[in-house]
Amino acid sequence: MPNLPFYDRQVTTQGLGAGPVNLPTTSSDQQFLGAGTEAAARAAETITRQENDTAMQGAAFGLDAIKYGLFKQVREKQGAAALDSSNQALQQFDQEAEKLNQNIPTSRRDEWERLKMATRLQLQSSADAHEFDEMKRYHQGQFEGRLDLGIADAQTYWKEPILYNTAVEKVDNAIDTYSAANGWSAEQTAAMKKDTQQKMALSATQANIAERTKGMMNADGTLNAYDGTIDPDQLATAAFYQESRLSQFDASGQPLTSKKGAVGIAQVMKDTGPEAARAAGLPWDEERWRNDPAYNLALGKAYLNKQLKAFGGNNVLALAAYNAGPGKVNEWISKYGDPRTGAITNEDFIRSIPFQETQSYVTKIMDSVPSVPKTATMAAITDTPYFHQLSPQAQSSALSGMAEILNKQRQASRVVLDGVVNDASAALRNGQQPQVMPSRNQLISTYGLVQGGQLYTQLQNDEAFGNNVKLVKNIPPAQQQQLLEQAKPETGPNYAERLKNYEQLQSAISAVNSARNADPVAFGIKEGAVGQIDFTDLNSLQSSMQARTVQAGRISQQYGTPPTLLTKAEAKQFSTMLSQSAPGDALTLLQAVGRSLPPQGVSMFQAQLGENNPTYGALAGILAAPDNYLNTRSGIGSYVDYPLTVDKYIASERILQGYRALSPSAQDKKSGVTPITIPSDQKMQESFNDLAGDAFPMSSQERQRAYGLFKSAYAGELLNNPDLDSGDRADAAKSVDDKIAGKAILYATGGVLKYRGTDVVAPYGMGEDDFTSKMDNARAEAFKGLGSPSNFAPVKLPSGRYGFRIGNRLATKDGQVITVEIN
């Protein structure tokens, strides 16, 4: 344990074994000791001073960091946010500096306080300057914002004088307040008011122009300016646009001056100026004539109105006088006639003007004046208080800007109407109603009085031509030729146009007849003369086919084409339906159609169906034949009072079954149809020739069709005759069986009979005795007054009626083939 210290000995520690310290006892030793002590004291003082300096330096750096950090925060505040930012920064400075006080030695306190004060002054100076600048900028922004709002109000209230004037007063008050706060001179304040008022006036003028020019456009982008009349303001606007594009100054800023010396917007001549000024009720002022657009315009309008009054409101004469002088116009009236009295038209008077410049001037203005809406004339722009607050250059610029808008709208309307007119012309010339038909005023608004009127007249002519084109679609060829002959032009005015119409009508007639002859019913459907076939169900099909028969007969007479029941597409559709149907369904469909049609309809249906498939065509004719009252399967149908030699239902079944068995389609094979073999074509042809004889003397096509049905009927009978055993069928497949062949010719033709020694195809299923009796009576009646018909043999025609032949010639009466119907 350590020993406690005593006066006469050093502290010792047994653990360390320290010995005593021997103090000096001599004077020299004491001097040395005193020097060491002083050195140690000086060293301690130096160390203390260095520590104090270090503390002061650290505090000074901290103080600067606080100053710069706070000033950075101050600088980040702008505008109104900078208000009181300097005081807030100083308060934070004091708080942060106070925290540094505890590190300052007592001996350096005064120095520290002086440093704090200096640093605080630096921060205050910088922060105050920033706050002042920002508040100044803020107040300037407020001021400029008030001016901008005033300009915007002028744009809003351009047609509300009271509200507009209120906006001007508010702006003037703002300028007064700001100028007072910033020590402006009276001259500076007045200049600012004038400049701002001109900006407001320009804003109001531009809004006025935009609103008025916007109203002249239709929703489709075309002009809607012309209402059939022209007032003096419209005429003046169009005239001065032609004169100067509504500009007082040229590109260099000098007064716009023509080669002849005419000046400004209205291009008023100096010699005319005083007279125009008197007419306007204004003193003549050459300086204003050159440099004041409103003054120049007032002179021009007054002088033009004077000419209008002098020439009785005639626009053409007034414009000519404005350009060439009233004396010249009176000379021309004396020489060419006065359009005011009807002695000459305005158009002819313009063409008679001997001065090319004046003629062109009047023509261009009269063409452009309809494009100027009554609501957007120069007067609507210039007759406002704020327009006169504009500088001359601004007035000129505003008016020329309006002229440019009008011109662009006119051009844009022309782009739209060019296409509309072309489409309308094409539709009208084709006999159709155009989707959009431009009005006369609409055309004149865009193209001018002359061209617009001509275009409208042309559209009327196109419509008349189109009516002829529409007419030729619905009249026989003979009437078409009469119409064409009437349209044949003779030389004279507009010969080229009339010749073009004639040639196009000729072409239209050719195209119409080509289309009608190619597919009459399709043409009739397209023109609305024929309705569609309704394939929805059998009832709908029958009713629409009945209506079609009537329509087909009518268009046959109209078009001068052979009677046709179906379009080519419909005939193909029928054939496809029958081919894809089961035999029973196909026969049901054919019978339903046949029963709904009169004989002529059946004949047309049979012929057209036969073009796609002769077998189906023939079956349609067979199933349309009358039922015998003793041999019918239905309570519906047409009946005859004589017994039939063939059952048309069995005949149809046999023919269809045989047809499909001879050449089964993929669909037939899927349905279980088994291919069948019949005797060679040579053997079959020989058998058919023996049975048919000379019953088809005038049509190899009809004979070939009957032969095809004969083969199908033979195959069908071979398949289905219950009296045949397998051996009989095998023999009949190799060699013609006469019994089967006899039935086949009966099924295929309805019966080949002998009439007075001549082979003839009878009405389907009619016996020879009945046919002979009926034919004798019909032939005698047909040849009454023509001599004996004994040299003429009856022949069945494709229509189902009978003609009378001698050799290869049919008997005629009054140029028409003699035919009879046997039923």
The low-confidence parts are 1-18, 630-637
The percentage helix is 55-70%
Q: Work out the strand percent.
A: under 5%
Radius of gyration: 58 Å
**SS-based structural class?**
mainly alpha
Spatial strand sequence of the major β-sheet: 5-6-7
What value does the average pLDDT take? Answer: 87
- Counting DSSP H or I runs of 4 or more residues, the number of helices is 32
Largest sheet: 3 strands, antiparallel
The coarse overall form would be: elongated
Distance between the termini: 163 Å
Number of strands: 9
Walk me through what this model shows:
The chain is mainly alpha-helical and 823 residues long. Among the domains are: 51-214, no CATH class; 232-390, Lysozyme (Orthogonal Bundle), CATH 1.10.530; 666-749, no CATH class; 750-823, no CATH class. 64% of the residues lie in helices and 3% in strands. It contains 32 helices and 9 strands. Strands 5-6-7 form a 3-stranded antiparallel sheet, with no helix packed on it. Helix 2 runs antiparallel to helix 3 and helix 26 crosses helix 29. The longest helix has 49 residues, at 27-75. The protein is elongated, with a radius of gyration of 58 Å.
What is the compact description of this entry?
This protein is mainly alpha-helical.
